[in-house]
Structures
1.
Amino acid sequence: MIDLRLLREDPDRVRASQRARGEDVALVDSLLSADERRRASGTRFDELRSEQKRLGKLIPKAQGDEKAELLRRTGELSAAVKAADAEQHEAAEEAQRLLLELGNIVHPDAPIGGEEDFVVLEQHGTPRDFAAEGFTPRDHLELGELLGAIDTERGAKVSGSRFYYLTGIGALLELALVNAAIAQATAAGFTPMLTPNLVKPAAMAGTGYLGQVEDDVYHLDKDDLYLVGTSEVPLAAYHMDEIIDASRLPLRYAGFSSCYRREAGSYGKDTRGIFRVHQFDKVEMFVFTTPEEAEAEHQRLLAWEKQWLSSLELPFQVIELASGDLGASASRKFDCEAWVPTQGKYRELTSTSNTLEFQARRLGVRMRDTDGTRPLATLNGTLCAVTRTIVAILENHQLPDGSVRVPEVLRPYLGGREVLEPVASPTAAFSTNAK
RNA sequence: GGAGGCGUCGCCUAGUCCGGUCUAUGGCGCCGCACUGCUAAUGCGGUUUGGGCUUUACCGUCCAUCGAGGGUUCAAAUCCCUCCGCCUCCGCCA
């Protein structure tokens, strides 16, 4: 949520932001009037309550008629206080409800527009020219099956479409990626974290995932818990309702968790393979820092993502997302998109958002420094979304015979293996009877 | 899942039985000032969080806040109910 004071003092800025997002501008005026009502009813309650307390203190000492009169007046006041309290409650709830609907203020440098209006900032590496190399690239699923690494048929049999098994070398590849990513994050000063995959509504709402994207979230009705779509949620909520001394900032966490996404409304999109799935694992960077440092930290997160993709020797580009594609929480967002040869385009592998104080306000995470207690800033960035990274590695590093070159950074985590080779069956290479 | 205990403003703690003088006690820590070659010690003052009013700072003031939410009452940290969390024991279990 944003600062109500900003809304009062500069409503036009908030209106402009809502407009840029393609969201309800009238919300600003509903909110202004709800806030007005909240303050007015609050003042009324305060005054009545003050009077009630003042008179109440006289009662134990009073006698006879004087006491009877006091009891009569405080009796009346009691009813009035109760009514004012109810009104104040109602107004505060209304204001809060509207405030939670409001998106974050869009960063002034974010391009205005929708999903197609992103801006390409940089390109790294060069896509391979398979024609010049003399063969047609296989897609990641074909490669994954050849290597005995990916099994989507059985994933569908057991769990439905968009589910998969990583088998044999595929499983090892994930573990290698996760280990390498955690190693990079740890070297950069992040604290590794394994987080809960099920969270309460407060955590989900606080991070901003119960608004427009609510349909994309799994909910367990029986327990009123949500399956997280990213460890950003439990990491952001880790310090919920806490006040953090500024000297401890920045707090940098590298979370590893499964991520669950219903992918509602994406029917027919990316149906082949494991590019878009209901469940995948991810190493996520999450930072609590001061609002003053947020912008610079955002650049650092982007730099760590670039370092990661470069170390995997993947060609990729960096884009800045347009205002309409930011999601409720982000004021600004960069994606790194890796080249996918068989699709002939760049696809999102990582994403980093600066949410400023938006999530912190909702979650009640504050900092204390010489200026007192105030909300801090939170930022997040993907380090390694495993399935999509596997897609990019298989396709970009494939060889004519269907084997796949292992980027050097992963070799220590794969027993020194330099190439992944096709197998007769997923279990063949791991069976004790092999060779 | 069952039984019991506990939850006080950073930490510890008094208060809860018996409602009002609780504006929540004391200690530790922390901050400021004084004293002091320096440090230590000592003394004095301050130290939950949120909201409102005062111009948005300062100062001041009012209200809320004793795990959360309801209720009883003129009045709730204190009495009643529901929920949450932690601890102990029992049952079940990876």
2.
Amino acid sequence: MNISDVASSTGLPVKTIRYYEDIGLIAPARSANGYRQFSDSDLHKLAFIGRARSLGFGIDACRDLLRLYNDQKRASADVKKLAKSHLGEIDRKIAELGQMRATLSHLIDACAGNDRPDCPILADLAADHDHA
Amino acid sequence: MNISDVASSTGLPVKTIRYYEDIGLIAPARSANGYRQFSDSDLHKLAFIGRARSLGFGIDACRDLLRLYNDQKRASADVKKLAKSHLGEIDRKIAELGQMRATLSHLIDACAGNDRPDCPILADLAADHDHA
DNA sequence: TCTTGACCTTCCAGTAACTGGAGGCCTTAT
DNA sequence: ATAAGGCCTCCAGTTACTGGAAGGTCAAGA
């Protein structure tokens, strides 16, 4: 299988697949002309990584997940721990964004949005929020 | 005012303040020895930027907000438009993270988390989610 | 056979917004 | 005089790609 076939069957961009080889996530064989030749195993790995990335796991976490996946003697506790830690990160981000959302949405509601210069949004940004 | 004073009163790291000068957000004066000399206006600008950043606005949006802030003839509609667009971005991110959270949390609940290798999390990652 | 177009390759640079560190001058206090 | 600490610049690294240039390869049609 050539790279563009792999791209269309995994949904990953060609560039991304090359990048994943670069950083050592996969190591596809090469044919005589220098083209990458992807095995089913490469394909599965890439699909696995793509799925993990879509759940927000970082590249290093993907590496760990792949290692655990290939380890027949793994303990599911290790996987769960990794996933829980990632869930914590997600929750932290959601909380942060939720906080931003609340403040911003409040300010937007307070803003007339007309051709006058008075603006509660700018007023808030300029106000003293005290970091001292 | 020297840079570390500004850092402690704005809550921004010294490195970040230098960076903001680098990219043209501020242009503090220099004293004879080459040290940056921050005016009250510089200080206010930095506080403004810091606040905008804490609401998740990107650097370019900060530049726009600062420009609007300094424009006495601005229309609040322009500020509101910018803020609304940013709110949309935030909502998009929250939705994406919420989706991840839901899936991941479901998988975590299904995982025994013991010393056995069976793991619904890995099973899901390895499963065919069909991008073809 | 030649050419054209779609592949494939590598390498370099850029993205967002900093952050860390090296090497070195300036200031202040002992 | 010296040591500590603040300031300076410049370079490199971070995350996870993405775009583009320059060039080799392959299959099909005229």
3.
Amino acid sequence: MIAITLPDGTVKSLPSGSTGMDIALSIGRKLAQDALALKVNGQATDLLAPLSADSTVEIVTFDSPAGKDIFWHSSSHIMAQAIEELFAGSKFGAGPSIEQGFYYDIASEHRFREDDLREIEKRVLEISKRDLPICREEMSRTAAIEFFSTTRVDPYKVEILEETLKNIETVSLYHQGEFTDLCIGPHLPSTAKVKAVLLTNISSSYWRGDSSRESMQRIYGITFPSEKLLKEHVLQLEEAKRRDHRKLGAELELFMLTPEVGSGLPIWLPKGAIIRNELETFLKEEQRKRGYLPVYTPHIGNIELYKRSGHYPYYSDSQFPPLTYHDEEGKQEQYLLKPMNCPHHHLIYSSKMRSYRDLPIRLTEFGTVYRHEQSGELNGLVRARGFTQDDSHIYCRPDQLVDEICDAIGLTQFVFATLGFSEIETRLSMHDPANQAKYGGTAEVWEQAEKDVKEAADRMGIKYFIGVGEASFYGPKIDFIVRDALGRKWQLGTVQVDYVMPERFDLTYTGSDSQKHRPVVIHRAPFGSMERFIGVLIEHTAGNFPLWLAPVQAVVLPIADDVHDYASSVHQQLLAAGIRSELDLRSEKIGRKIRDAEIGKVPCMIIIGQKEKESTEVSLRRHRIGDEGRYSVSSLIERLLTEITGRT
RNA sequence: GCUGAUGUAGCUCAGUCGGUAGAGCACUUCCUUGGUAAGGAAGAGGUCAUCGGUUCAAGUCCGAUCAUCAGCUCCA
């Protein structure tokens, strides 16, 4: 007998050789039905693997992230089997589970089309009905190479075995019916667990992510243990579509993109410009309190500037080509559309002598930059070719550095909290020691910079994860990452430490010893890019902006013509108080006017009829809330202004 | 940039076998004057993304280009 400890602390005694299924059955039939796999002492294993020692176990179901991971991983195998049955000769690359489902990379003579996906879906469900047991088999690596060279010819699996797994003695294969895949597991006990499938799209990928290798066809899908869960998922996708900033941006007239201006070059429409302007004003106020000094710099700069900064050689691919012309003497000059603001700011720093008493100096600018992102990368506001960074550079002494990083983190946190972003991931972006060529500066400088970044992050008590190889070429970063409506991650705010640029630009200050010293630079941008931030904000709020940001804050809705004069005077009073108000004088019924204001996501509807006119009051209706009762005009204005200035 | 898909009125979308382009919403005008999410009628609105080809005839078939979407790759 062995002792099995369950997550709630109860201990069950079962015969040695019992499986996860036996444990689940001993707890309840429902659990046994839902059980997908087992965690033994924290390690995921197959449900039918026999246990021979005392252990702490947890039954894994679809409700847990581990359960979804296993479910979708097995699903990718089932899809591969379906594809193999339908399209003989298909070879399989990698087929992992991902955050929302799974994919499999396939090399096939056949070009997969939308219609094929429906056929494959049918076959997946058929394989599910066959209720094939999914069995693990362990063998030596050499035996597995033999297997994938002769029994099941799949050169990709052989390559994985020979390269990725070259230091591993024993590997595992999983069999289900005629299909076998090389896989570490664990997997579902049977194909029958998969009850609903949706194959979502076909794209391409490179074998092992290497663009010099052959390209494969990647099929994405998602599966569920019930039809009901699939329906919920489809509803979620539809909701995400409704929140898509590109759709809302057009509907609410916030911004536009047109090939007549150029791909990836957003134009801010009046309503979008209001939001951006409010956000800029907000940050400017906060920065003024924190001792930042505003500057302005031009949109283009001599190419020599970027060669000096080191940006040009590192990033020449993603810049617009230089503007080249010849001056009066025939000398050639080249200018670059500004891909970043830092070099300009460095020149401002070095435009005069700086004393250690002057530091830190915090230069700030909403600087518009242009980067030639690959066409396939462009995505509304969140990935554009022209965008504005809320860019500041803080020049400080080494002894001030950690304090300054902490202040920058604090400002970023304040900005995010004000805008209601609560689910932020923070990444410490460090350099990749295996790829030194990607970075400027010496090893000592990097060591110091990464230590400083960590110290500041720890002092600010932020939860973070380390991103190896995510650093910029001049230094490590603290990146603040949020998700869009579709769950895709976007980097917004960033705080970066830079010991490299001060060298390149020979930045100095005079110390108390009257000697020259090197300052350290912090690059920081709480919003990151105004475009991206607002794009994500649109999705985050679904276009229901807080009052202080709403392009139209109030709309005055008279019920009938005989109160138009009074309504118009209320509207004028709102405007005079600085509230962005509109007046709806259409000859529509009040229900219609309310509906249009609700659809337009206007936060306040000011409803005015005969009763309000007589008592010189107004009725307030809040967007998505409803009737809030009567107010005098002055008390309404006071209430709205309090909400606006408080940015709540 | 790569792979696949898409492109018809301001928006959402029909358009069969290749035979002179349709709906709803929005818009304009008129009627209607009302109490918390759609009052009624009429009207206007299109070089079917662009360019080229096949054909007696192309929104429809073929090719190229541009743009958008999904993913890959890249990312200061």
4.
Amino acid sequence: MPTAKPTDAPIDLKAAPARRTRGGPKGLRITDVAAQAGVSPITVSRVFNNPASVAPETLERVRQVVQKLGYVPNRLAGGLSSARSRLIAAIVPTVAHSLFSETIQVFSETMSRAGYEVLLALSGYSDTNEESLLDTVLSRRPEGVLLTGVAHTDSLRERLRNVGIPVVETWDMTDTPIDMLVGFSHYQIGVAVAERFLARGAKRPGLISASDVRALARRAGFRERLAQAGMTEVAEAIVAPPSSVATGKSALPRLLQDAPDVDAVFCGSDLLAIGALGAARRMGLEVPGRLAICGFGDLEFATETMPRLTTVRVDGMRIGLSAARALLDRLDGGLERAFVDVGFRVVGRESG
Amino acid sequence: MPTAKPTDAPIDLKAAPARRTRGGPKGLRITDVAAQAGVSPITVSRVFNNPASVAPETLERVRQVVQKLGYVPNRLAGGLSSARSRLIAAIVPTVAHSLFSETIQVFSETMSRAGYEVLLALSGYSDTNEESLLDTVLSRRPEGVLLTGVAHTDSLRERLRNVGIPVVETWDMTDTPIDMLVGFSHYQIGVAVAERFLARGAKRPGLISASDVRALARRAGFRERLAQAGMTEVAEAIVAPPSSVATGKSALPRLLQDAPDVDAVFCGSDLLAIGALGAARRMGLEVPGRLAICGFGDLEFATETMPRLTTVRVDGMRIGLSAARALLDRLDGGLERAFVDVGFRVVGRESG
DNA sequence: CTGAAAGCGCTTACAG
DNA sequence: CTGAAAGCGCTTACAG
């Protein structure tokens, strides 16, 4: 028999110092690196955040240890301590099949090149929850926010201003942005398309559009410009977002049933326009002779494959880039508030 | 004269307690809410994280104060303290014009419904920096990671396994995933398209493809299946990502210059296919009679508007949903490792 | 159902 | 160029 009977001796759990380790033993900490490298944690911190202030050999030694151990600093801790999260929030309705995704792409690339990461929040098309989404986002303490559109509740606007971080609103236009703005006027697009139709000699313009804020702004410009020309009745088919080819395909026959003499239709998106074009073909309506169709977005697809389509080109990438730059300028201590109208262009291939 | 001359008396900076406030006085803290509500900070914390454990009246009172003050908890602090970041990282090549954006959309929606936020990291098409991107991402201590593809360096794979968080690889197939997988076989797609071409009686198949890993896997399946049928020479035009309509349009003439008798071409994406279709038209080649064209992606655009195009349908949304579910199951304590082949379908309208 | 104490892993501001 | 002390704003684990 051995001299001790381990199983008999009760283990005094209380005697063991209560470990307060919570995440488990997995995580490497800055102190682990510091110990191995024979420096203080502060020096390790500097290696990551201000390498120029560290002696070359020290730098090298610490880096070797970091590499060897596979240490990755904890930015939750770093952010809490420094009050700099290095996070930028982007709130967009959707990234699926949309021009917004180009904006996000370029925005995100630009931000990450500058050392920031992008927290993506998808708001859908309901404005209801934008504010609770903002709360969720603000809980990460982002250093800047990109917003889509300019239609926000007063409470959201005020809260965002109180937070004191730079904000860019995008993809729309207003005289009273929360902070900065990079966008264009949907209303003016409606006006421009109306003028295009008028110039073509359209007698009975119609509209197929989703019911979101920005589509409604285009509609308003469209209708008001037509009203100036004496056309007060505009046939409309309003569809629920998200727009799709299928939606456009089914909307056109409905529109023409209400108003058989419609000879030019402004669609809320290229997808809708393509659907409408398909429907027109099926109905034997010559495009653009009998029926002119104008979309919105200028997707490469649409314009390359549907030469008889007119559309409105908007530069989503430029919006992403300008918005990122505006934010970065301010984060670098710049005082200027960017206000950029990127404009748009009605692109018609049917006449060229 | 007043009894004191403030400007004369030197201000003893040392005497003032060194304020360690760094973020400035702006931020509301949990203690502010606690004080106003007459409870301890712990109770306020519970109101957010475990409301069921708080007495109804206390709950109500605290919520009122939160509302009134506009308090938003600091998740940097919360995450550090609890070792739960509530963050999920998604690393994808791009979100612009791509099926990945559908995946991200659904993934993000599903995750946010479950109380997580998505940190989006765009890797581009270079594998070079995927590892440094991963470091950046891991510094936020995400609780799970979505990866695109299965081609990762050993070091990345090992590191990710060491971190011990659930990982889903997507959009590809392998026998040896890092952890979980939701995808499909690009090789098998190549095989299937080859078989389609063979069934159509193609004598001289060709390929227009980008050079990324997954496109190359499709190419391999395509070539190997054709080789089995005795066709060892396959004309190819390899293009640099990202694919676009323009690229496809310029690639087809090059391909046909090398191999004028090509009668069926497998394109790496629908965009390339559309470009090729445009070029074929311009060259007076009947599609699919003289030249069959097959794309990849089944974009609604492509199939609705180009009835003579064949394509390969892949369900990006399903990938996003399944990947999210796999991660969530594991985060909820599930032990199962998802391994899902979502498959694909060759969709040909030219024969229907 | 509620709270006092300790600690999460960093960085700031100071001093040398 | 480097470091000891204090603190960022929460939550855990315990106790009652």
